[in-house]
Amino acid sequence: MTKHNPNNERIKRKYLIFMKEARQQQEATIDAIAKAINRFENYTKFRDFKSFRFEQAVGFKKHLAKQDNKRTGDKLSKATLNSTLRQLKSFFNGCLCRRDINHASITLMLNILICQKMMFELPRQNVLNLFRQESR
Asked: Distance between CA 109 and CA 39 in Å, rounded?
């Protein structure tokens, strides 16, 4: 089974260097970003980011919600789910800005990840308010 994709590794390396040098993120943050990206890559079986399909984002959110915490055995906390999806959203948004990945597929991905708060069972009115804020 493939453990990495050379094209993805180049994209990830550029992004992680950018986060460390330009955004001056700490090592712990860089590690968390790398772990979030790795979780997504494991889910997609290390497919090239350029062949991304929006169904992968939907499936990954559902997959992530079912995962267990290795240390406690419980489901992953909502904070972990939120931070993982937020870091992925930032990564793919960065790829879009640098044109490392196809625009159309990433736009769909970002729209799905923007709705990540819906997976935490917000009341209907709060969800509608989120969409109103995003459209401004």
From this structure: 16
Place of tokens 């789910």: 81
Residue pair 59/8 in contact by the 8 Å Cβ criterion:
no
Return the H-helix or E-strand segment holding 15: helix 6-21
Domain assignment present for 1: no
Give the model confidence (pLDDT) of 6-62 as tens digits: 999 999 999 999 999 999 999 999 999 999 999 999 999 999 888 877 788 889 989
- Cβ neighbours for 9, distance < 8 A, ≥ 6 positions apart: none
Q: Say if CB 74 and CB 68 are below 8 A apart.
A: yes
Which structural domain, as residue segments, surrounds residue 98?
Answer: 6-135
The residue assigned the tokens 């729209």 is 111
Say how many domains are in the chain: 1
